[in-house]
Prior knowledge:
Elements: E1 5-11, H1 20-23, H2 27-35, E2 36-41, E3 53-59, H3 65-76, E4 78-84, H4 86-90, H5 102-109, E5 133-135, H6 142-153, H7 165-171, H8 177-181, H9 197-200, H10 217-227, H11 231-238, H12 246-260
Parallel strand pairs: 1-2, 1-3, 3-4, 4-5
Amino acid sequence: MQAKARxxxxxxxxxxxxxxxxxxxxxxxxxxxxxxxxxxxxxAGPLAFDEHVDVAxxxxxxxxxxxxxxxxxxxxxxxxxxTIGACATAGGVQALRGMxxxxxxxxxxxxxxxxxxxxxxxxxxxxxxxxxxxxWGCPVNARQVLGALRALLSGFMPPEEEDKVCLECKxxxxxxxxxxxxIPCMGPVTRTGCGxxxxxxxxxxxxxxxPAENLNTASLSRRLEGIGLVREEIARRYLFIxxxxxxxxxxxxxxxxxxxx
Length: 261
C-alpha cells in the first residue's frame, strides 16, 4: 500500500484567516485526510513541528528573531514550501512597520518595551528561505489551496494566476464600478483569484490579491486623482494589505511624496 503524502500547516505573524481556508473545507477536509496525512496543523489539532513533510503550507510573516529560526526549520523539514496569503507572500499589513521607527513606537506603547521581541520589519517568507509556490490573497480560498495541493502531489507546479481583476469582471459580466459609478477601484492593477468578488457586489476592489503582471500604477493613480481622491488617499490604496509588494510599495510612496511636497 502506497504511503500517504504528508502535509503540514504552519503559522507565523498573521490573523489565522488563511488557515480557515482549510478548516472551512468541512467534509472535503475529512475526505482530504483520507488521501494525505496532516502531520502538523496547530489550529486543527495535530502537533509535530519537526516531522518531515511533502508539502508545508505557511501562513504569516516573519516579525521576530524566533520566527527567523523557525522558518529555516520548516524549510529544512519539507519538500515543497507554499506560502498562503498576503502576510506570507508580501509581509501583510504589518509590513507598514518597515516605514516607521519601530523602536520609538514600541517604547511609546509598552510600559516595559525591553520584553517585546520584535524585529524592525515584517517580511515575507521568501526574504528568508526558498519558496516553491506563492498563493496570494487575504485570505486565500479553498480552490487555491486544494488546486495547489493536487498539482504538487501530481508532480507539477500549478499555473500562476496573474490576470487582472478587470479581466475577471468582464468574464463574469460584472458592471465596472469605476466606469459606471465613479467608485475608486484597484482592479486594474490587482491580480485575480478572488473571482472578482467585491466588484460583483458593486464594491471596489481593494487589492487584497496583490499586484498583477504588467500593471500600470501611474495610469491608475492619475485615474483615481481624476475621480477625486487626494494623493494621501491614493497612497493608502497602495500601502494597505499588500504594501510590502514592491510594485504597490513604490506606487504608494510616489503618491505619498507628492502629498508631502
